[in-house]
Structures are given as C-alpha cells and as structure tokens.
C-alpha cells in the first residue's frame, strides 16, 4: 500500500522520523535515484518505500534508453520505475532529455539541422508519453564547461540557441511539468561554471524562455567539497525566479558535516524544494568504493543519515505555498468564493468581466489498489482569476495519498483542492492541472468535480 503523504506542510509538526516525513514538514521532498535492476532488490525497495517520496531513474529515461532507434521509442524500463514509484506514493523526476552523453546511437551520424530536429522530436516523443505524470524534467543536462562557457558537443554545434529551443519545445509538449536545467560543479558561487549557468538562467528569464528550476547535482568528491557559499548560490539562483533542487547528492565517505551543511543550506532557502541522493545504499553508488550515500551496504543508516534527518527537522523556512492556509472563520480575509455564478461577492475588489471556472478529471494511471488522477482547471470566465478552489468527491473506501500542484483539505469523501502558490493566476481560457494519488479498493473516478475561482 502506498505510504500516505500529504501536501500540507507544518513546521510545528513533531519531528519526522524518516527522511521524507522530515522534509515534508517544510513542504519539501526527499528523493533517491534508482536503476531498473533495483526493482528486484527487496532491500533497496524497503528503504525506498520507507524513506523517500521522490524518485529519479538513473539511466532509464535518458535519450539512449527511450529512443534507441530514430522514431522508435521504448518506455518499458522508464515506466517500470515510474509505476513502482507512484504506486508507492512517490513523485518522479524525469532525467534527462538532452545532453552530450548517453545519446541514441543514431544522433552520432547526424549534425546541424538534422540533429536539431532529432533533438526536438525526441523531446516531443518522450514528453508526450510522460505528459502530466512527472514533477519535473531535467530538460538539459551538463551543457557548461568548467570555464563557464558552453561545453563543446554535437548539440552545441547545432547553434548556441539549442538549449532555449529545448526548453521552448518542452514547455509546449507538457505545459504542466517543471522544466529544469541540471549540472554539476555549480555549487560554489564564485566558480566560473556557476556564473555561466547563472547568466544563462538570468538571460532566459529576461527574454521569457520558459524555465522553472535549476538542479544542482551536488556530487561532493575529494576535489569538490561543500563550499561555504553554497547557500548563497542557492538563494542567488532562486532570486532569478526559479526553484532550486539538489538532484544527485553524494559525498565522499558520507562526511556528516558536508551532508549536514548541504541540507541546512537547502532548508534555509525557501525555493530549495528538495534533495535527491544518487542511490540509497553505498552499494548503489556509481562512485565505486567511496561509500558516499546515507545507508551502508547492509542497509543500515549511517551517521550522515542522522545529520540529514536532524537538519531537515530543523528547517525554519517553508516552500512557498506549501503551508496550510490559516483558518479564519468570520474574518475579513480575502474571499475565495467568487464562482461560476453570475454575481461576485460584494466585498470583492471590482471585477471586470464574469468569473468562471471549469474542472475536468482524467485517469492517468491505475493499478490494483489505487490510481493516479489529474484535474484540469480552466478559467471559463472573461476576467482573470487570482486563485481557484476545486472540489471532488472520492468514492467510499478511497483515500487521497499524495497531491501536487494543489493543496488539499481533507483526504476522503468530498475533498477541496486550492491552487498552489505558483498556479493560481489564470487568464481567461487559460488552464492548469493538479495531480494526485488515491489508495482505493475500487478505482472509481471521483464524482462532483468542479471548481470556483476568485
Ligand atoms: O547496461 C550496460 C551493460 O549492458 C554493460 O555490460 C555495461 C558494461 O560497462 O555497461 C552498462 O551500461 C552502463 C550504465 O551506466 C548502466 O549500468 C554504462 O556503461 C555506464 O556508463 C552508465 O553509467 C551511468 C552514467 O550516468 C553515464 O553517464 C551511471 O549508471 C549513472 O549513475 C550516471 O548518472 C549521471 C547522471 O546521469 C548525470 N550526472 C552524473 C551522474 C553520475 O555520473
């Protein structure tokens, strides 16, 4: 049965006793990476299920895995990881759509516009398959060199705009998923590569190129350890208007001070939304015998595990929009009750045009014991919406286990879902989606799906 996790974050909750529970207190996630071979490793799966609420495929969603031959997509390995993760209450990060390594063999015989077209087709093909299902995509991976200029690669040779083309293609292919740029050695603020990536994100934001997040891989090796300015790096990226996440963390010999420091830095930056370790046990790591993870080869938590857990529980900042709205019965707090009915409340600010909201449910995936659903909320009125609240009624025996891109009230029967901090504003005709997991004895679709806007 999927572990129940809830969207409400509350720093006054008792300390979490697992990584995910401790992270969720402040609206964050704690993730891991897994290869397909771990799906038959019961030791790995037990820890994954207990401790983590986000999963990344180590290799199975990369370009060579998902499009081995031109136009022939293969999602079996990626789907196996995706299905296990969502069936156990986790969300999934997509890794990755375009980078210089692990490319389909046929990309090697292409160049110029034919390679550019192949990249665009790849992004469209893969994102169509996972549309509406993932928390984020690492759209582009490792495109910068250590000196802060672009890494030379066959993709870079197609023109300097290849990265923004990838992001624009990705936004059109799946408007609901967060689009990330992901790289290593960008943790030290004064490092040339960090500045190179920072300047690209700043330029994208200035020119309206769609980008939502930066993934800092956070591989701390002998030659690259936790920099004293890591928090400054995270907050500087966040100040550009993107989320940041630590996407592949591992530390030589699992230094407790470095693990504690990287976790504290993330907890101190509101838009640092989560941490992923690249594997779970030392035996899962790509780093041979460096023992860089939080669990040892016997599946026991190491000292670094405790330092991370404590740092998660000590968080004092929350991810924006993750907290429960204050309950203010009878107060004069802003109304969220403007609805599809013709008259807006008289206390509301003047509204030009008629408010309206429509909600539609889609069954994304189902299995014995539950399903993944998605609700599309559309502004059907002629005035912009500043927020919305959806309703749906779960059948008897069904329980909401997890939700993203929305904040729930209740977990059974009639459930309310209000917008997250970043998807409440909807222009006329614009829509957004929220997704959720339901534990169910029968996979009946929710009834009474509706919304009101304000
Ligand atoms: O599957 C083949 C197998 O059939 C063959 O016998 C074997 C022989 O070497 O190779 C196997 O493929 C290997 C694959 O991992 C699966 O184990 C590749 O050689 C190996 O290169 C590949 O390494 C992966 C690496 O990315 C490739 O760049 C690692 O597992 C994976 O952990 C690593 O992940 C990267 C992130 O994507 C990006 N950031 C850095 C991170 C660590 O390098």
From TrEMBL:
Residues 319-354 are annotated as: Disordered. GO terms for biological process: xylan catabolic process. It is an enzyme of class 3 (hydrolase). This is Beta-xylanase. Keywords: Carbohydrate metabolism, Glycosidase, Hydrolase, Polysaccharide degradation, Signal, Xylan degradation. It catalyses: Endohydrolysis of (1->4)-beta-D-xylosidic linkages in xylans. Residues 13-311 form the GH10 domain. Residues 320-350 have a biased composition (Low complexity). Coiled coil: none annotated. Signal peptide: none annotated. Belongs to the glycosyl hydrolase 10 (cellulase F) family. Residues 350-454 form the CBM2 domain. GO terms for molecular function: endo-1,4-beta-xylanase activity; polysaccharide binding. Its EC number is 3.2.1.8. It holds the Pfam family CBM_2.
């Amino acid at each position: 049965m999927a572990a129940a996790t809830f969207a409400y974050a509350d720093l006054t909750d008792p300390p979490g006793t697992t990584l995910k529970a401790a992270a969720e207190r402040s609206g964050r996630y704690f993730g891991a990476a897994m290869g397909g071979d771990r799906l038959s490793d019961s030791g790995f799966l037990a820890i994954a299920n207990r401790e983590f609420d986000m999963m990344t495929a180590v290799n199975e969603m990369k370009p060579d895995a998902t499009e081995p031959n031109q136009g022939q997509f293969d999602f079996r390995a990626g789907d196996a990881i995706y299905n296990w993760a969502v069936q156990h209450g986790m969300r999934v990060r997509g890794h990755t759509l375009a980078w210089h390594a692990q490319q389909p063999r046929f990309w090697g015989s292409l160049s110029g516009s034919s390679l550019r077209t192949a990249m665009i087709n790849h992004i469209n093909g893969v994102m169509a398959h996972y549309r509406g299902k993932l928390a984020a995509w690492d759209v582009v991976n490792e495109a910068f060199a250590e000196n802060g200029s672009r890494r030379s690669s066959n993709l870079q040779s197609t023109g300097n705009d290849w990265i923004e083309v990838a992001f624009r293609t990705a936004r059109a292919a799946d408007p609901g998923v967060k689009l990330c740029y992901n790289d290593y050695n960008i943790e030290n603020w004064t490092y040339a590569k960090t500045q190179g990536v920072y300047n690209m994100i700043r330029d994208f934001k200035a020119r309206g190129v769609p980008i939502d997040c930066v993934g800092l891989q956070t591989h701390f090796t002998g030659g690259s350890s936790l920099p004293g300015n890591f928090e400054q790096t995270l907050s500087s990226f966040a100040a550009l208007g993107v989320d940041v996440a630590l996407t592949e963390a591992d530390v030589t010999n699992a230094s407790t001070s470095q693990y504690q420091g990287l976790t504290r830095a993330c907890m101190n930056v509101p838009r640092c939304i989560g941490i992923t370790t690249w594997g779970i046990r030392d035996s899962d790591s790509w780093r041979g015998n460096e023992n860089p993870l939080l669990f040892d080869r016997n599946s026991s938590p190491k000292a670094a595990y405790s330092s991370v857990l404590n740092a998660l529980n000590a968080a004092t900042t929350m991810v924006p929009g993750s907290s429960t709205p204050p309950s203010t019965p009878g107060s004069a707090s802003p109304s969220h009750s403007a609805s599809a009915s013709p008259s807006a409340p008289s206390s509301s600010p003047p509204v030009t045009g008629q408010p309206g909201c429509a909600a539609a449910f889609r069954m994304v995936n189902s299995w014995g014991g539950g399903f993944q659903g998605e609700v599309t909320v559309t502004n059907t009125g002629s005035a912009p919406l500043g927020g919305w609240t959806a309703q749906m009624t779960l059948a008897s025996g069904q329980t909401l286990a997890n939700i993203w891109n929305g904040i729930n009230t209740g977990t059974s029967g009639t459930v309310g879902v209000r917008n997250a901090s970043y998807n409440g504003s909807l222009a006329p005709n614009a829509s957004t989606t929220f997704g959720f997991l339901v534990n169910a004895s029968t996979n009946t679709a929710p009834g009474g799906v509706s919304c009101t806007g304000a």
